[in-house]
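Progress note, project year one: complex with zinc ion.
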Amino acid sequence: MALLSFLGAIQQVTGSCYLLETHDGAKVLLDCGLHQGRRQEEEGNRLPFPFDAASIDAVVLSHAHLDHSGLLPKLAAAGFRGPVHATEATSELLELMLMDSANIQEKDAEWETRWRQRIGKPPVKPLYTRLETERLLQQRRPHGYGEPFEAAPGITVTFHDAGHILGSSIVQLDVTDFGRTRRLVFSGDLGNVHSPLMHAPTYLEQADVLLMESTYGDRDHRNPDETLEELSRILDQAHADGGNVLIPAFSVGRTQDLIYHLGKLYQQGRLKQQAVFLDSPMAIRANDIYRRFFDQLDLPELAGHTAAPKIESWLPVLRTTPTPEESMAINRFKSGAIIIAGSGMCTGGRILHHFKHNLWRQECHVVIAGFQAAGTLGRALVDGARHVKLLHQRIGVNAQIHTLGGFSAHAGQSQLLDWAGRFANRPELYLVHGELDKMKVLQQALIERLNWNARIPEPGERIAL
Ligand SMILES: [Zn+2]
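Model obtained:
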């Protein structure tokens, strides 16, 4: 009988990781994500894997976000030599995400080592290096949506579009053990049906065991049109106040959505700001990958085109600032600028420098448009912190902080219920990838609305498939 272990993103949103083992000894790892957020969670990244990395036959990756992929180089460094199966776009985005992550790991370790040496402490090693990451990237095996392949003996995998970010997938695993086939479906991160660039998540009808994400299990998002109006009002207010607008954004997914929305306001003649900066080398490169896979986007206006225009052309006032010098030059703008920069949860990246220059100014505005995990700087701002610590300085928060729920790249509660409800046969349902209080609300809604008992697994729990 095949066994499934719940290793990561259990009662929390980061560190996605599940291990599937058949009786015949096949081992497939589903996602290998980085823990992000609170210090104690991030320290989890340093712990040894609870399995022998060399014994894993293959990794199957739902999508490129680091909380699903970010420990892959560490897995390879620990001895994993098998293939990493993912969709074509995920395979492309993975290089971008992991090389950036390796860079950050090396720089952080270098900085900390220098600091430790001054007080006579031993140096620290990066979580993984660029070299280890380059090696892991050689192990990628891209696949198309809807094309089944064998990931290991007895385990056939099919990717279906999850509509979350480019390349994101719902993973279907058909597991044959002792002549019996059981179907495991992992939702991955399910997209928001209202997201402008992505298709709605694929509806599936049959599974024996279902793992479903529950990031927004406790609520529905606001209507996207209302959200766009709200954004427009905030931008007008910032213009009237004479301050800048800072938008921390994930480089992959959120940034492209924002360019689309701001482009819409521009075309309607409603964008007063004359300068929108995309201050993220990674997002600029992600734009190119989005453009290359434009046929996978839900943009009817591009149907029939053989080549898509550059994403930047959606918003004529957009300026990209790949170099550090160009990035620093943005500081000259004391008003009238919209600055989109990473990281999405404000845990690093160029957004911190813009916070340093703008967060203490009451005429400035911060727009938070994505999920902020507990323990992150972004969450502290959402929760109303009056002071924050960033770049080794204490900064007062005088700028106005706005949270926009409607642009989420995740399904809201009703959408989760709708997606799960399409399974005709009521599979065993496990809720994953969510904070416990939100999962409990979703669990209750599943009982009330669908008369369906879902389980919330414990970290490390193992079930028979
Ligand atoms: Zn994601």
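The longest helix spans residues 88-118.
The mean pLDDT is 93.
No further modelling is planned for this target in the current period.
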